[in-house]
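Human:
I keep going back and forth on a fold encoding question. Comparing notes only helps if you start from a blank page. Show me how you would write down a chain together with its backbone fold. Write it directly below this note and I will take it from there.

Assistant:
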Amino acid sequence: MPINDPAVGLAEKLGLTAAELRKRKLLLGLHAEEEAELAQLRPTVELAIDDIIEEFYRRQLAEPAIRALIGDRDTLLRLKTAMRAYVLDLFCGDYDVAYAERRLRVGRVHGRIGIPVKYYISSVFQLLQVLGLYLKRRTGSDYPPPALRRLLLLDMELTFDTYVHGLHGQIAALQEELVASSRQLEEVVRERTAWLEATSRIDALTGLYNR
């Protein structure tokens, strides 16, 4: 199946197999125990999810550049809905290839919109702070939970993978445009050369061959 086939998932395009994902989690110290710990926190997060989202975007909108990227109220509402689903997904407890595929799609959207990496990283930092704050208030757990930090690092890895993949795609498209332009230029040069050769052999006034 072609790599640019829309039926092919991002994880497959990037070669992100279950084995590769397990290796990445192990490198970050994200083991089954940490995954289970996050799943246990989901009911607590669900109780505070609306407050978490509002506080997160209150902090986001305090930055003029991010406020300009968000734009209008309808866009903000859509972002809040998407963020709500994302936050709950952080505590699903099942971080398999399907989870990675969802994260890769988010990264692709960020890349297409053109969100600078610095604002993406700052958003992750703010989300970590907000989640840690609410979890500490309700559970007295570490601020923020180590398992959450590790999972967000994994999410950042996946997002950067899509950023790089997108850049490779842009470079490939530019190379194709360059090749096409080069071919067009070569054709123009051939036509111009043929015209010059013809005009050098035939007199423009008489139409006779030059001696």
